Amino acid sequence: MKKIMMIAVMAVCCLTASAQKMRHSAGDITIQPMIGFSTGYWRASDDDSSSSGNDARVGLSIGAEGEYYTSTEWLSISAGLKYEQLGWANKNIPDTKIDYINIPVLANFYVAKGFALKVGLQPGFMVSAKQDGKDIKSDFNTFNLAIPLGLSYEFKNGITLDLRGFASLTKLNKEGSGKLYNDGGSLTIGYKFELK
User: Fold this and answer.
1) In whole angstroms, what is the distance from residue 150 CA to residue 108 CA?
2) Using an 8 Å Cβ cutoff, are 27 and 69 in contact?
3) How far apart are CA 153 and CA 36, in angstroms?
């Protein structure tokens, strides 16, 4: 994770020097409804052999984000509210379905017109957790803090494609000697409405 973050920071630093102007002006605010797919999987802090059968769960990602364009022409700040279906599939245990309300707060670095690299913090709140139809929410910590990294491209007509992943900082499991994290990502399509 540290290597990925270092690469992302270096890419932003190198590319912002030649960044083109954003599609929006300083002080503009946009609202973007978005819908797409989410994927979740679990990451263990130790070398648990059961992680070899860990497969991603594919679900729904739906929500909206607001974006504020700063006076620095290659930088904007966004905050959103997203419902995302995460969890995992595993050959050793029944599929686990964990749904969250995530609140991504991102710095968006526009390295070319319409194209942004994203990094920030994402608090999340578990709304349900089921395994083989059984409610297991009480087994888990319901708050999750993650670091999202991503990229997006806004077309001239306002349609935006957004790809991001996130790594959790807070452990999922309440009990056990190891630490279990619910990581994930999403691919969404949205439309930016500019507020005057």
Assistant:
1) 9
2) yes
3) 15
